[in-house]
Amino acid sequence: MKLEVNKDLCIGCGACCATAGEIFEFNDEGFAQVKVDVVPKEYEEDAIDAKEGCPTSAIEEKN
Ligand code: SF4
User: Fold this and answer.
1) 3-state secondary structure labels for all residues of 1-40
2) pLDDT tens, residue by residue, 13-31
3) How many angstroms does the Cα of residue 26 sit away from the middle of ligand 1?
Protein backbone atom coordinates (compact mmCIF):
# COMPACT_ATOMS: atom_id res chain seq x y z
CA MET A 1 0.00 0.00 0.00
CA LYS A 2 1.23 3.47 -0.94
CA LEU A 3 -0.28 6.64 0.45
CA GLU A 4 0.07 10.33 -0.14
CA VAL A 5 -1.29 13.46 1.49
CA ASN A 6 -3.18 15.84 -0.75
CA LYS A 7 -1.61 19.14 0.20
CA ASP A 8 -4.62 21.09 -1.01
CA LEU A 9 -6.82 19.35 1.54
CA CYS A 10 -4.58 18.83 4.59
CA ILE A 11 -5.28 21.30 7.39
CA GLY A 12 -2.40 20.16 9.58
CA CYS A 13 -4.58 18.84 12.41
CA GLY A 14 -2.06 16.15 13.29
CA ALA A 15 -4.56 13.31 13.67
CA CYS A 16 -2.73 11.06 11.21
CA CYS A 17 0.61 11.60 12.94
CA ALA A 18 -1.02 10.68 16.26
CA THR A 19 -2.73 7.60 14.85
CA ALA A 20 0.12 6.30 12.69
CA GLY A 21 3.31 8.05 13.71
CA GLU A 22 5.41 5.49 11.86
CA ILE A 23 3.82 6.54 8.58
CA PHE A 24 3.01 10.24 8.83
CA GLU A 25 5.00 13.23 9.96
CA PHE A 26 4.73 16.98 9.78
CA ASN A 27 6.68 18.80 7.11
CA ASP A 28 8.31 22.19 7.63
CA GLU A 29 5.12 23.93 6.57
CA GLY A 30 3.07 22.26 9.31
CA PHE A 31 1.22 19.86 7.08
CA ALA A 32 1.36 16.09 7.06
CA GLN A 33 3.45 14.03 4.70
CA VAL A 34 4.04 10.33 4.26
CA LYS A 35 7.41 9.15 5.55
CA VAL A 36 7.62 5.88 3.71
CA ASP A 37 7.46 4.83 0.08
CA VAL A 38 5.50 1.67 0.85
CA VAL A 39 3.55 1.19 4.07
CA PRO A 40 4.95 -1.87 5.84
CA LYS A 41 2.38 -4.62 6.44
CA GLU A 42 2.54 -4.23 10.20
CA TYR A 43 1.48 -0.59 9.95
CA GLU A 44 -1.23 -0.97 7.34
CA GLU A 45 -4.02 -1.09 9.90
CA ASP A 46 -2.83 2.10 11.58
CA ALA A 47 -2.41 3.76 8.20
CA ILE A 48 -5.95 2.85 7.17
CA ASP A 49 -7.28 4.13 10.50
CA ALA A 50 -5.45 7.40 9.88
CA LYS A 51 -6.77 7.61 6.32
CA GLU A 52 -10.35 7.01 7.45
CA GLY A 53 -9.95 9.39 10.37
CA CYS A 54 -8.61 12.33 8.42
CA PRO A 55 -11.23 15.08 8.79
CA THR A 56 -10.67 16.42 5.29
CA SER A 57 -10.09 13.09 3.50
CA ALA A 58 -6.65 14.34 2.50
CA ILE A 59 -4.98 10.93 2.67
CA GLU A 60 -5.20 9.18 -0.65
CA GLU A 61 -4.08 5.80 -1.88
CA LYS A 62 -1.52 5.74 -4.68
CA ASN A 63 -1.34 2.99 -7.28
S1 SF4 B 1 -5.31 13.89 9.53
FE2 SF4 B 1 -5.59 14.75 7.47
S3 SF4 B 1 -5.84 16.96 7.77
FE4 SF4 B 1 -4.97 16.12 9.67
S5 SF4 B 1 -2.74 16.38 9.41
FE6 SF4 B 1 -3.26 14.31 8.68
S7 SF4 B 1 -3.61 14.52 6.45
FE8 SF4 B 1 -3.66 16.58 7.37
Assistant:
1) CEEEECCCCCCCCCHHHHHCCCCEEECCCCCEEECCCCCC
2) 999 999 999 999 999 999 9
3) 9
